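> forwarded from #structure-qc
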């Protein structure tokens, strides 16, 4: 059975979409396995099973490909975190401490699951303006989602919005530092992910639900 003229454009678009996803998956795998140095157009073409020229036509050059991979990855990561700590999930939890622990755990678990690729983009962002801008934009969105997820939680501070903003920054900065620097920096004691998760939950619960007195 042959395709009708009207079905051909849709079929071509679907094939093009699948090809693009294959390229992004191949590039993501190379970045995860070997970092930025492993990402070359030739290597991606070989991994994806397509011609080098087709990648140049779609993404322009290696930098265009890199930014497309980052954008796709950060969109998916943000969606994953947002789903894990959605207000619909947290609002039914009667204990505010449990809701906060769930939100902090959602961020920690998502970052841990994608540790290798996040390390690539976090370190690259220190010297690549476009990569840093994309990462910063996604972090700001994550901050908003964190605050929205805990909007109905009774925060024991004069300025709950500022307290939630600081809590997110504390969690994000600690996890990012752990990803880029490892578990031994600043101490001879290791800090495994499970312990880091638990300590962050305890710290943020204490900060948000503690005394309203303070500066």
């Amino acid at each position: 059975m042959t395709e009708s003229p009207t079905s051909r454009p849709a079929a071509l678009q679907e094939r093009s979409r699948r090809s693009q996803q294959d390229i992004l998956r191949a590039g993501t795998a190379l970045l995860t396995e070997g970092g930025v140095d492993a990402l070359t157009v030739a290597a991606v073409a070989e991994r994806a099973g397509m011609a080098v020229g087709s990648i140049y036509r779609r993404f322009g050059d290696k930098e265009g490909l890199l930014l497309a991979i980052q954008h796709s990855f950060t969109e998916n990561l943000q969606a994953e975190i947002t789903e894990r700590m959605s207000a619909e999930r947290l609002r039914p939890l009667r204990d505010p401490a449990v809701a906060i622990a769930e939100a902090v755990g959602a961020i920690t678990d998502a970052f841990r699951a994608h540790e290798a690729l996040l390390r690539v983009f976090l370190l690259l962002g220190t010297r690549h303006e476009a990569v840093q801008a994309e990462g910063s934009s996604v972090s700001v969105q994550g901050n908003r989602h964190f605050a929205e997820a805990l909007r109905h939680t009774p925060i024991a501070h004069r300025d709950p919005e500022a307290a939630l903003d600081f809590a997110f920054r504390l969690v994000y900065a600690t996890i990012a530092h752990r990803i880029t620097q490892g578990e031994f920096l600043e101490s001879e004691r290791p800090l495994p992910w499970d312990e880091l998760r638990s300590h962050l939950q305890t710290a943020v619960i204490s900060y948000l639900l503690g005394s309203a007195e303070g500066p």
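QC bot note: The CA atoms of residues 183 and 191 lie 5 Å apart. The mean pLDDT is 91.
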